[in-house]
């Protein structure tokens, strides 16, 4: 019986994942402080770090860890390696073809799709000796599909193995777009995904009458808000709303640098998340002129609730209604208390407010500490769960009280608080109860935007 051996010794701030293929390690790693993951190869031996070299086509590295492409994972096959990651803010899949000597025999081939904004990932691929790869695909207007792709010729016709059936849904009635919005710093381009009914957009182009727009965002932990299909989004679209996703900094849409300091939105640059969101809202109102503040709503859950809370504090005049689901809004008080089970781990995201530099910075954006006194605020619906271990119910309760105390009641919208006495962080686990809770949120939204009769 042999002892367990490590592929490479542990090193500070070095991440790596390993796949085995034909006597070699395929390594995805950020070694040498690369902003994104590199793809490296070495003999399949213990303590192999000294043998790691970039996988190349000729003299060109396939994934060098630079800002252009972000690599997430690789899946090995007998004659190919399939890589998944991100490029241009969109999930991507690439095919790497290898010859009999395991050398890359042609340039990296990316799978392209017709729609501007979509979500694609690797499906279950258990057969090593296969010439085809199965990918999962959906978009803002296309329900989820499983597609089989010939790795020897990725541009050849593809086979849809399975597609989710959505009763009554007619894809041709809907349109989607992907665009970039310049942030207030004058250089950063914020990806924005948009979906709408085509007749609604055609009517706007003919009349220029403002449309109701719902803006959604998250922007934390390096998590991506994908341009994927959402059947629960259809009731809003059917009532003439345009649904917009702002892929703000703090997520991972543009690669690891979209999340990490100094260009992303972590630690002492977290305000970039909120600035980006407000900049997209202003673009919709002022530059695009699709909507007005009276017809613009916003929504976010958990850390996305922090985003919404900070955004309506920064620009309360921009929004008519806001939904804050289980919102993380009492940032400093929560992060300073290490007796809360998740707090100390969260210092890796926000910083430790027991240190002065982080305390001061967090106080400048924590929603509960920055409600504008005497300002007109949008209508707000705050929800929470009594058994939520991540964002305790008192956070939305305290923020609701702070809003009611400081806003101008005559000109501001109502501040509604709804605590589910049986739910945790992810709302109701029962499917039908979840739809009931979502219907409540939508009823509030449509009522405040004056769309309850549509």
UniProtKB/TrEMBL annotation:
SUPFAM superfamilies: alpha/beta-Hydrolases, Peptidase/esterase 'gauge' domain. The keyword Protease applies. Residues 233-450 form the Peptidase S9 prolyl oligopeptidase catalytic domain. Its EC number is 3.4.21.-. It is an enzyme of class 3 (hydrolase). Belongs to the peptidase S9A family. Serine peptidase whose precise substrate specificity remains unclear. Does not cleave peptides after a arginine or lysine residue. Regulates trans-Golgi network morphology and sorting by regulating the membrane binding of the AP-1 complex. May play a role in the regulation of synaptic vesicle exocytosis. This is Prolyl endopeptidase. It comes from Attheya septentrionalis.
């Amino acid at each position: 019986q042999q002892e367990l051996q490590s592929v490479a010794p542990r090193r500070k701030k070095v991440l790596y994942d390993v796949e085995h293929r034909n006597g070699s390690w395929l390594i995805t790693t950020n070694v040498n402080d690369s902003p994104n993951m590199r793809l490296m190869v070495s003999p399949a031996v213990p303590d192999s770090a000294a043998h790691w070299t970039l996988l190349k086509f000729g003299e060109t590295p396939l994934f060098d860890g630079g800002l252009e492409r972000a690599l997430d994972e690789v899946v090995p096959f007998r004659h190919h390696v399939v890589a998944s990651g991100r490029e241009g803010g969109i999930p991507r899949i690439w095919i790497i073809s290898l010859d009999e000597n395991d050398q890359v025999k042609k340039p990296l081939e990316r799978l392209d799709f017709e729609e501007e904004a979509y979500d694609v990932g690797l499906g279950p691929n258990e057969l090593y000796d296969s010439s085809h790869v199965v990918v999962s695909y959906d978009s803002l207007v296309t329900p989820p599909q499983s597609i089989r792709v010939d790795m020897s010729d990725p541009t050849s016709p593809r086979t849809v193995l399975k597609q989710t059936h959505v009763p009554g849904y007619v894809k041709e009635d809907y349109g989607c777009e992907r665009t970039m919005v310049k942030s207030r710093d004058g250089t950063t381009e914020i990806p924005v995904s948009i979906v709408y009914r085509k007749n609604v957009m055609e009517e706007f182009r003919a009349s220029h009458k403002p449309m109701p727009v719902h803006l959604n965002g998250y922007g934390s932990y390096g998590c991506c808000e994908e341009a994927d299909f959402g059947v629960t989004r259809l009731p809003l679209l059917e009532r003439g709303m345009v649904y917009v996703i702002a892929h703000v900094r703090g997520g991972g849409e543009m690669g690891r640098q979209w999340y990490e300091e100094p260009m992303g939105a972590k630690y002492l640059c977290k305000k970039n998340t909120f600035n980006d969101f407000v900049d997209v809202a202003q673009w919709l109102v002022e530059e695009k002129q699709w909507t007005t503040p009276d017809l613009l709503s916003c929504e976010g859950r958990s850390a996305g609730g922090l985003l919404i809370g900070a955004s309506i504090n920064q620009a309360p005049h921009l929004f008519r209604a806001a939904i804050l689901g289980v919102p993380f809004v009492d940032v400093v008080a929560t992060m300073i208390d290490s007796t809360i089970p998740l707090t100390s781990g969260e210092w890796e995201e926000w910083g430790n407010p027991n240190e002065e530099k982080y305390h001061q910075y967090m106080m400048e954006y924590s929603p509960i500490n920055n409600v504008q006194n005497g300002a007109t605020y949008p209508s707000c619906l705050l929800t929470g769960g009594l058994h939520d271990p991540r964002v305790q119910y008192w956070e939305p309760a305290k923020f609701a009280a702070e809003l009611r105390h400081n806003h101008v009641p005559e000109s501001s919208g109502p501040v509604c608080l709804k605590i589910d006495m049986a739910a945790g962080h992810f709302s109701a686990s029962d499917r039908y109860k979840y739809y009931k809770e979502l219907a409540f949120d939508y009823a509030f939204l449509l009522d405040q935007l004056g769309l309850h009769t549509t």
